[in-house]
Specification:
99 residues, 8% strand
Length: 99
């Protein structure tokens, strides 16, 4: 069973060419959606995370950076309601994940 895959990329010609070549070589049908300012959208979404990281004055170890940034990302996902948990507050969702 073949899935109808869609991929969103910026207006880079190299990315488009690579995906089209892959489609031809592998016989797949990946639909390409292009957004000229995709990188800007991603950077805007991560701005609060960057601000939180800057406020921590850097990290001493990679492991602690990974854990801390993972927590920041989790809280943003919960706050933006990108996780399914109807009828629960953000705090209830967070505590249910921590169990």
């Amino acid at each position: 069973m073949q899935h109808n895959l869609k991929i969103t990329i910026d207006k880079s010609g190299a990315n488009t060419s690579g995906i089209e070549t892959y489609n031809d070589d592998e016989g797949t049908d990946i639909e390409i959606r292009q957004n000229k300012y995709l990188n800007n959208i991603i950077e805007q979404d991560h701005r609060p995370i960057k601000q939180l990281c800057r406020a921590t004055l850097g990290f001493k170890r990679f492991r602690t950076a990974t854990i801390t940034i993972g927590g920041f990302e989790s809280m943003r996902i919960i706050r933006k309601r990108q996780i399914r948990a109807e009828g629960k507050t953000s705090a209830e969702i967070f505590y249910s994940l921590a169990e």
